[in-house]
Every structure is written in structure tokens, then in C-alpha cells.
Amino acid sequence: MSEAATKERTRNILSDKRFKGTRFSINRGEGATYDAGPRKFMVYRDLGIAEATGGAYDAKIVKANPAVKERAAWHKHELEFQMVFVLKGWIKFEYEGVGHVTLYPGDCMHQAPGIKHIEIDHSDDYEGIELTCPGKFQTVEVDPPR
After folding, report:
1. Are 57 and 46 in contact (CB under 8 A)?
2. Is 98 helix (H, G, I), strand (E, B) or coil?
């Protein structure tokens, strides 16, 4: 990308209303805690991105909670963007129109907005990073695909 194109892209980003009110943020690993979240079979470390971006984005480290074997029903997320990057272990999903997908360390997946899916299983040591836009979004249970 040329220098002029880079400057134009930066101007466009800075004028985007989603970036208004964002601030610098560091979330240190030392002393980090994991809390309960929307899925009982996972625990979550908030990386401070939602607060730093006024809720425009969110980033969390998600780890398996081996004590809970329950899994979520078929569902979809009402959001603009979701990405999963696996740090440790593995996680297996099924997606409508795609089929089964198993992710391993180093794998990165963009989950299309509104795609129906279900988590089938994960390793007890699963750990991944999830990025979303917006930071808060609705999850809606759906019927399994036919």
C-alpha cells in the first residue's frame, strides 16, 4: 500500500464513529483472573478492549471449564464480526452449510455474522482468543438445520 493510501485509510479510520472515544489500553497477564460468562462450560478473561473502545469491540481469552460437560444449543450471534484464534487444545463446531470444523492451536476462524452453529466438544485444556464487533451482542437459539 502506498504512503498516500495508508494516510487516507488512517484518516478514514479516525473519522469512523466507531473509533470515537477509544483510548489506549494494556491488560497485563500477571494476576489475571477468569470469570463466568455466557457459556457455563467456559471461563473468560476480559482483555479490556470493550472498555477501551466504548463497546465497539471486545476481546476475551476463553478457557475450557472441565468441571462442566453441558454444551450450548444450536444458535447464532447478531453481530458484525467474530473471530476465534486457538491458543491451546482443540474445539469442534458444526456450521450450517459448512459442516464440522475442528480448530487446533494456531488456527484462526472468522465466523460469518448470523451463521447457525453449535459447539460439539472441546478439549479440557482448550484456550482461545475471541474478538467481536460490537462488544455486546445477542445470541439467539435456533432450530438445528435440516
Report:
1. no
2. coil
Taking the alpha carbons at both ends of the chain, their separation in whole angstroms is 45
Q: How many Å apart are CA 79 and CA 36, to the nearest integer?
A: 21
Measured over the CA atoms of residue 9, residue 13, residue 14 and residue 16, the dihedral's sign is positive
Domains and CATH numbers, the chain: 3-141 (2.60.120.10)
Handedness of CA 120, 46, 79, 8 (dihedral sign): negative
CA angle 56, 96, 108 (to 5 degrees): 50
Amino acid at 59: A
Q: What's the mean pLDDT when you consider all of the chain?
A: 91
Contact of 79 with 135, CB cutoff 8 Å: no
Other residues' Cβ atoms within 10 Å of the Cβ of residue 127: 19
Q: What share of the chain is helix, strand, coil (3-state, %, to 5)?
A: 15, 40, 50
Mapping DSSP to helix (H, G, I), strand (E, B) and coil, where does residue 102 land? strand
Per-residue pLDDT reduced to its tens digit, 5-14: 776 766 666 6
CA 103 centroid distance within chain: 14
Return the residue matching grid coordinates 482443540.
Answer: 90
